[in-house]
Write a structure and sequence with these properties.
The complex is a heterodimer of chains A (about 80) and B (about 270). Chain A is mostly helical and about 80 residues long. Chain A contains 4 helices and no strands. The model of chain A has no long low-confidence stretch (mean pLDDT about 90). Chain B is globular, with a radius of gyration of 18 Å. The model of chain B has no long low-confidence stretch (mean pLDDT about 95). The chains are: A mainly alpha (about 80), B alpha/beta (about 270).
Chain lengths: ~80, ~270
């Protein structure tokens, strides 16, 4: 069973790798739209990467209004 | 016409396989120009179908296969006429796109949609016309129409019902949620799952495989396996046009078109 911190860490690793942002510049409470410089289509791509990585299904309406990594991690944790 | 290079799509014939590439910026939104060029393709297909054995439809755009109908085009045209007067315009567009969809659906060729990224709404409906859907692991499928006060209008519901169990259809339609390729394969929508960026390559492998079969036998098998639900398709057009006159649609489209939100593609 992964801890919340592990989940957040893996999300930040994945976001850093796929959106070419220095990992050290990312923190759990960042607004990922702003920090990663992504639009809604890219956010869907992030959602898909997270679903594939954690082997979960995350309906997109569950992340409506979510813009920080920590809350995103909580949504994923609820599905693990 | 063996090759065509248009504004929104192009095609060429390679080793007996027609490759139809979608390339309208930003994400292959299907509006009037795409429809016109699909009609050109369907005309050419009448000849090509006697020469080729397979058709692959894919996207050259980074964001994906297609984000669906061009809502900005729909909104601006409807606003110009007044939404209360726009139903005939919408019906005409739907009738024309159904002619295109039915022609490709009924093609004797083995047809494959090679999907990556977003495959939403009208784009999803275009993929559903094909015999097989190959998707890379980053593909995402969605019918978001209920968010706009509508149902899919390009034949999506009858074709989804043809392929999947009704519970899955209800899940997709009534929640408007998007599902990834792994889930889409699990429910039977996606035939083959590809690594990221590899769906077209897998589709080409399969096109080479089906070339080995007798064309007439493949076409006969397809007609038997994949009946076209004409009555339901017509019913879908009627329901769509009825819904289109409701105030919720204008409000939903306006919200989408005027949105400066970073998440217009999220529910």
């Amino acid at each position: 069973m992964k801890t919340s911190e592990q989940i957040i860490g893996e999300i930040l690793d994945l976001a850093s790798m796929h959106f070419n942002v220095n990992r050290a510049e990312l923190s759990p409470d960042d607004d990922f739209f702003k920090k990663l410089g992504i639009d809604s289509l890219q956010a869907l791509s992030l959602l898909t990467r997270l679903e594939n990585h954690f082997s979960v299904e995350l309906p997109d309406y569950e992340v409506q209004g979510v813009s920080d990594f920590r809350t995103l991690a909580e949504r994923i944790e609820s599905r693990l | 016409m063996q090759t065509y290079k248009g504004d929104t799509l192009s095609w060429e014939v390679k080793d007996g396989c027609i490759e139809l590439a979608l390339h309208r910026k930003p994400a292959n939104e299907i509006g009037t120009r795409t429809l016109e060029e699909l009609e050109v393709f369907v005309d050419a297909h009448e000849t090509l179908k006697h020469e080729a054995h397979a058709l692959i439809i894919y996207s050259q755009m980074k964001h994906g296969f297609s984000a669906g109908a061009d809502l900005r085009d729909l909104y601006s045209q409807s606003k110009e006429l007044g939404f209360e007067n726009a139903a005939p315009l919408v019906r005409n567009f739907l009738n024309r796109i159904h002619v295109v969809a039915n022609a490709i659906d009924a093609s004797p060729l083995t047809t494959i949609a090679a999907v990556h990224g977003v495959c939403f709404g009208g784009g999803f409906e275009l993929a559903l016309i094909c015999d097989l859907i190959f998707a890379d692991k980053m593909a995402r499928f969605c019918f978001p129409e209920l968010r706009l006060g509508l149902i899919p209008g390009f034949g999506g519901i009858p074709r989804l019902k043809r392929d999947l169990g009704n519970a899955v259809v209800r899940d997709l339609l009534l929640t408007g949620r998007s599902i990834n390729a792994t889930k889409a394969q699990a429910v039977g929508l996606v035939s083959q799952l590809a690594a990221e960026g590899e769906a077209l390559k897998l589709a080409r492998f399969t096109a080479s495989q089906v070339k080995k079969f007798d064309r007439a036998t493949s076409a006969t098998a397809k007609r038997f396996l994949k009946p076209i639900p004409y009555a339901e398709l017509q019913q879908e057009i009627d329901i769509f046009c009825d819904l289109f006159t409701q105030p919720a649609v204008e409000a939903g489209l306006r919200k989408f078109v005027e949105s400066t939100d970073a998440q217009p593609y999220l529910p």
